[in-house]
Amino acid sequence: MYTEHKMLIVDDLDIDRDILREIFENDFDILEAVNGKEGIDFIKKYGKDISIVLLDIHMPIASGIDVLKFRQTNPVFSSIPVVVITINDDTKSQMETFQLGATDFITKPFVEEMIRYRIHNVLSTRQIEEVVRERENLRVKAELDLMTGIYNKVTIEHMISKLLATNTTICAMLIIDIDDFKQINDVHGHLMGDQVIRTVADLISRYFRKTDIVGRIGGDEFIVFMSGLPSMDLARQKASDFSELFKYTPDITAPANVSISIGMAISEPCPCSYETLFKQADEALYNAKRNGKAQYAEYGMKKQLIPVQSGIRASLLLSTCRDVRSAISKVNENTRLLTIFSTHEAQYFKKEFTGKVSLLYIDISTRSDDGEELLTEMLDIDWLQHIPFVAICQEGNMGQYATAIRCGTVDIFPAPIDTVFAKRRLAELS
Fold first, then answer.
1. Which of 34-48, 119-133, 368-382 has the lowest average pLDDT?
2. Pick from 58, 101, 133, 409: CA 20 to 30 A from residue 205's CA?
3. Which residue from 390, 357, 361, 362 is spatially nearest to 375, judged by alpha carbons?
4. Which of 239, 272, 298 marks a domain boundary?
């Protein structure tokens, strides 16, 4: 019946082991131990192959109680049913073994029909439990994205649709996309690309509320659904802060030039369809990408720039490197720092910040060339032409140093940036 499985009999009496072996030798591959210590050694060696343990309580060296206590600390053994061998009037031992996790017991003197019935019942119950557990595992796996462990596209759509159909609270849907993901794969390889996806998924899961629904909807695109919001401003703050996290946090386990864009749509306290809200969030994501990436955009809202307060200086930083952005943000503690990722994005600051930016930082440290093309393109922008600039060059790259000097830089910060050095140099420039 169970011939492909092993039965471990742990009993110090030869006669007891002989009787039990004779009863079950046609059903199991029998292992025999004469004390608890030997039984534990067998479990350590054959644990995954053992289907059931018949365990005497009173034995020398290590008792059955000792074996059951070991079972509580061993993940493999804890899943193996244990049937205790006892005597009819040993109620105290029987209760203690049940408290320690024993599955059932058989009594001496042995009655073959009763023993067979109990063992069959224990194993049948275990098989049913394994089937139920496996079905539950398959159900969970079917709902999750295997790479990241968060919900997959089918599950996320079903869950959000169900909530939106009867929605009575302020809700927000965020679509989060990794910028230039193809380039990550091309430059760093697919293993790094997979690592970036897992890193972003983990950060999203840890950053948003436990009540928020988080999923991966394909490739490098993720979704977050926030319901029960006290105000729309909370959704805006969470989206903005998460975008900033990727701009300025230096110790994220992903390449320093990785950034994310976010598109967000907010729903009033009324029923709404998943398709409608998704379409709106997707359109907002497109706007975030078009406006320069590495930012969030909200559906139906124009990009709003926070004005520079009177008496506060502003600096403009062009950099795709998170480590550089982090360092410059620390250097410019008393200055409003405006960060852009491309020369194209600089045009969005023209109207609000012309005449208010006193210093440019142009990062060419990650360029494969000497940086002349980027510097020329940046310095040709009309409203930036008369603003002094600091070039951020790769340390020791004399080609970049020469280009920066030729283009008129007022100083050079070597990357990686020493913030103490940079602060001192900045003070001298002032």
1. 119-133
2. 133
3. 362
4. 298
